[in-house]
Amino acid sequence: MELRPVSAPLLIWILALLLPAVLLLSMTLGTVDISVAEALEATANALLGNAVPEQIYTILFDIRLSRILLAIFIGAMLASTGAVMQGLFRNPLADPSLIGVSGGASVGASVMIVMAAGLIETGLLVGLSLVAMGAFAGGLAATLLVYRLATSGIGTSVTTMLLVGIAIGALAGALNSLLGYFSDNDMLRQISLWQMGNLSGANWTKVAIMALVAGSLLVLFPRDSEALNALLLGESEARHLGIDVQRVKRRLIMLTALGVSVSVALAGMVGFVGLIIPHLVRLVIGPDHRWLIPSSALAGAILLLVADSLARVLVIPAELPTGILTALLGAPFFIALLLQQRRKV
Amino acid sequence: MKWKMVRVIAFVTVLFCSGSIIASVTVRDDLNNLIELAGPAERIVSLAPDITEVLFHIGAGAGLVGVDEYSDYPPEAKQIIRVNNHAAANYELILALQPDLVIAWHSGNGDKMISRIRELGMPIFVVEVRKMDDIPSLYRRFGELVGNQKQAETISTEFVQRLEGLRALYSTRPQVKTFYQIWHEPLITLNAEHIVSDVIRLCGGINIFADAIPLVPYVNMESIVAADPQVIIVGSSEEKMPHWLDTWQQWEGISAVINEQIYLVPADLMQRRSMRILDGAELLCGHLEQARQLLHPERRD
Description:
Chain A is mainly α. Chain A is 77% helix and 1% strand. In chain A, strands 1-2 form a two-stranded antiparallel ribbon.
C-alpha cells in the first residue's frame, strides 16, 4: 500500500468544510456588492422571519442561492457519474459525454425544441418537462445503443463501447447542427443553450428537480461501491467474487443516463467536470469507490460552483459560458497533479 | 468618301468611349474599398435581409438574382433564390447566378465568406451600419450602384426628416432606463455598439447594458435587478406576446415590472437597418414615453 499524503476521510472532511465556505463566498459575489457580514445578517434575518430589504433578499436568495444550489447538485452529479463510469468501464477516458449520453440527450432536447416549439411556449413547467423528457429519451437511447452494440456473449467490451460512444457523439453533433440549420432564430438560440451549458436560468423548480435526481444517485451509487471495487480486478474476477456483473452494469448505466440527461435538460452540456474530478480525487486518495464516489461528488460541486461564480463576475455586467471556466480551472490543476505524480515514480 | 468613313468611325468611337465613361460607377464601401462597376448593377446578390429591403425600397428589387435565407421583406423577396444562411454560402450557386455585384454585411456575413467571394472574382460591396445616421448614406450609395439615384435620394431625405423629427421630440426628454431583451434563457441583450442602442438613445432612453463588452452580451438576472430598468422592451419575432414574458412577474423589485412597462416590439423593425427601423423607432419612442409619463407625471401633455 502506497502512502498517500491525505487519507480518504480527511479529504472528505476538507471538502465538506470547503463547500459551505465556497457557497458563502459565492453568495457575496455578483454585480451588486454584498459583503459576507451583510449576507450572513440577511440570512439570519430571513431564517428568523425578520424583515430583509427586498432587493437584497431577491438577489441573495432568488437569484444567487438558486443558481449556487443548481451548480452544486449538477457538479456533484456529473463528478460522481464520472467516477462510476470510469470504474465500470475500467477506463480513465470514460465520461458521460464520451459514451454518448450527453450527445444523445442534447439531440433529444433539440428535437423536442424543434418539434414541440408551440407546446413549449404554452407553459414554463410543461415546456421544461417536455424538453427534459426529450433529453432523457435521447440520452437513454444513446446509452442503450452504445451498450447493446458493445455487449456480446462474453460480456461488454470497453473498447467497442468507447468507440461506439465516440461515433454516437459525432452523430449527435451532426444531428444538432442539422437541426440548427433548419430551425428559426429563436429555436437556434434554445438549441445553442443546450450545447453550451449555462446555469443562468436557475430557478427553484430546476433546483428541486436536480436535487431529487442528484440525491437519489448519491444514495444509490454507494450500494455498488464494493462491486465497482471488485470490477477493478477485471470482469471475470468480479464474477468469481459472486457479483452479478451485467446487472450492476445495467443499473449504473441507467442511473447515469437519468442523471446526465436531466442535467443536460436543465443546464445544457457542462463538460469536463465528470472527466477530471474523479481523476483528481483518485490521484489523492486512491481508487476505493467507497470514498471515491462521495469525494468526487463534493469536489465536483466545488469546481462547478467556483467556475460558475467566476462566469458570473468576470465580465460584469455580462457573463461567460460556464463550460469555458470549468476547463480553464480544471485542466491546469490536473496537469500539475499528473506532473507531481510522475516525479514521485 | 474615305475620309468621311474615318470621321464616322472616329465619331462613333468617341461616342462609345464617352458613353462608357458616363456609365461607369465608383462607390466607396464601409471597408473603405473603392468598388468600380462598368455600369449600374443589374444582377445583384444580397447576403443579408437588411440589404434586400433597402434594394427593394429604391426600386432595385427586380435586379436581385439571389438573396440570403432570411430575406422575407417585402414578400416578393421570398421568391428569390436563397444563396446563404448564418453558417455558410453556396459559392457555386452564387457564381452560377453571374452577379455583377454582391452586397454583404460585414459583421453578419463575416470576413471568411466575404473574402471567398472576392477571391472568386466577383465585385463585392461590404456594408456595416451601427448608427441611425449611417442609413441615409446606405440608401444613396445603393442608389448610385444600381443607377436609381433619384429614388434613393428621395427616400434618404425622407429618412433624415423622420429621424430628426423623432430626435427633436424625444432625445432630450428625461432619460428612461431601458432593458432591451432579445431572448429569455439565457438572457441576451445588445450593447452600445448595436444600432438598437442608438434607437434607444434617440428616444431618450439609456440602455442599461450599454457598457457590456460583447456586442450581444449574455447577462444575468442579478445585473438586471441591480440596474433596475424602468422599461423592458422585448424584441421578438413573434407577433403576440410570447408566453415566457410572464416569468418577469416574479421579479417584483424591478420598476418596469411594478409599473407594467414591458412591451413587445417586432425584432424585424428594430434590428434591420433599413427604412423600416423608423417604424420600430416610433414604436419604441412611444413605449418609452409611456414609461416616462408614469415616472414624471408632471410632464404629461
